[in-house]
């Protein structure tokens, strides 16, 4: 009885001295409203990226640098080892939003979802995100334009046919040895927090003969592992925790569940027929640039031409609209040749 009373007294005193655990707040759940899924948001993970110093040391040493290969790699990275790499800072978001909404008026909700995470942040970083939408809806262009609007360097990688783990680097002992994709991006752009865009992530090959890209990406999405990522080329740990991963997909089912679980999935809408007034002039300018002409030479689209495009297109794939604009240009040229 004495021992029981003593234990109860000790437990009571400990409870009084320790701070009470707070109940989770509603805003600690990040809602992926488009899919109707509530995903717990890792506050500790986000806090570790909140206010980092102005520079991040990505690589502190080269492993096995006494070997011939190690000496070669050390020389290759000598300007990179132990030197802080700058972080791209968050720009004024008002003009960023205005510009993106002007280019993609149909994706205003997605734009707000992507930008609201920058409130109170000093440096650019976004949660791993999959932009899920139909083919031709403009997902890839939006991901690229988002990085450009944020004034952050990016790498765009097509995942179609990607069937090995090269995205995580290849050992230096092989003739094809190279650093991991994020390490190469950081070194190329001299920036510790570039954006890596994996286009059509669902098309990654499923064979594990030479490793699998999905397996590698899973590790790079986790803060704990990405902060100490062992790159097989430099044979040393690298801090890749400030890299942003954006992915696009036409379907979510082929993406492994373990990868989906680590990402925010945001539905990307299709353009509407009424968006032709914004999209068609941009496509027209792009086509003139492709042919080597100054886009200012492009005769602005007339009202009847926009109406015809709107009726023939009806919304949906931007690729279909581009083919229609190409046909319109050909019709213009034929008309000029008759005059």
Protein structure class: alpha/beta
* Overall 3D shape: elongated
Beta-strand content bin: 5-15%
Q: What Rg do the Cα atoms give?
A: 25 Å
Q: What is the straight-line distance between the termini?
A: 110 Å
Poorly predicted runs are: 17-41
- The CATH superfamily of the largest domain is P-loop containing nucleotide triphosphate hydrolases
Reading the helices and strands in chain order gives HEEHEHEHHEHEHEHHEEEHEHHH
Helix content percent band: 40-55%
* CATH-level-2 architecture of the largest domain: 3-Layer(aba) Sandwich
Question: If you consult CATH, what is the topology of the largest domain?
Answer: Rossmann fold
Describe the structure.
The chain has 339 residues and is an alpha/beta fold. The protein has two domains: 32-267, Rossmann fold, CATH 3.40.50; 273-338, no CATH class. 40% of the residues lie in helices and 13% in strands. It contains 13 helices and eleven strands. It has helices at residues 2-17, 43-50, 68-76, 93-103, 108-115, 139-149, 181-189, 213-221, 223-226, 257-260, 276-290, 303-313, 318-338, and strands spanning 29-32, 37-40, 55-57, 84-86, 129-132, 154-158, 195-199, 229-231, 236-238, 244-249, 264-267. The strands form four sheets. Strands 6-7-10-5-11 form a five-stranded parallel β-sheet, with helices on both faces. A two-stranded antiparallel sheet has the order 1-2. It has a two-stranded antiparallel sheet with strand order 3-4. Helix 4 (93-103) runs antiparallel to helix 5, helix 11 crosses helix 13 (318-338) and helix 12 packs across helix 13 (318-338). The longest helix is centred in the last third of the chain and has 21 residues, at 318-338. The radius of gyration is 25 Å and the shape is elongated. It starts with a helix and ends with a helix. Mean pLDDT is 85; it is low at 17-41.
């Amino acid at each position: 009885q004495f021992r029981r009373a003593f234990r109860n007294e000790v437990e009571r005193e400990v409870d009084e001295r320790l701070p009470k655990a707070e109940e989770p707040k509603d805003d600690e759940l990040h809602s992926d409203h488009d899919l109707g899924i509530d995903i717990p948001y890792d506050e500790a993970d986000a806090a570790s990226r909140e206010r980092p110093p102005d520079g991040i040391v990505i690589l502190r040493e080269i492993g096995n640098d006494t070997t011939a290969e190690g000496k070669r790699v050390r020389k290759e990275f000598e300007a990179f080892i132990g030197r802080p790499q700058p972080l791209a800072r968050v720009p004024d978001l008002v003009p960023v939003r205005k510009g993106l909404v002007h280019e993609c008026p149909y994706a205003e909700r997605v734009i707000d979802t992507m930008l609201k995470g920058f409130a109170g942040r000093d440096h650019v970083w976004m949660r791993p995100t999959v932009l899920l939408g139909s083919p031709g809806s403009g997902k890839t262009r939006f991901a690229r334009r988002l990085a450009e609007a944020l004034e952050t360097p990016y790498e765009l990688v097509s995942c179609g046919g990607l069937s090995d783990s090269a995205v995580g680097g290849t050992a230096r002992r092989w003739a094809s040895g190279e650093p991991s994709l994020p390490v190469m991006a950081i070194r190329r752009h001299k920036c510790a927090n570039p954006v890596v865009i994996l286009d059509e992530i669902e098309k990654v090959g499923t064979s594990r003969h030479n490793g699998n890209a999905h397996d590698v990406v899973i590790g790079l999405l986790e803060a704990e592992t990405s902060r100490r990522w062992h790159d097989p080329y430099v044979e040393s740990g690298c801090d890749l925790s400030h890299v942003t991963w954006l992915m696009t997909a036409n379907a979510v089912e082929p993406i492994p569940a373990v990868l989906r679980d680590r990402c925010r999935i945001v539905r990307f809408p299709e353009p509407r027929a009424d968006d032709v007034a914004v999209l068609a002039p941009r496509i027209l300018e792009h086509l003139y640039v492709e042919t080597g002409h100054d886009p200012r030479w492009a005769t602005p689209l007339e009202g009847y031409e926009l109406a015809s495009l709107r009726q023939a297109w009806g919304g949906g794939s931007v690729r279909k609209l581009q083919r229609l604009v190409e046909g319109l240009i050909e019709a213009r040229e034929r008309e000029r040749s008759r005059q």
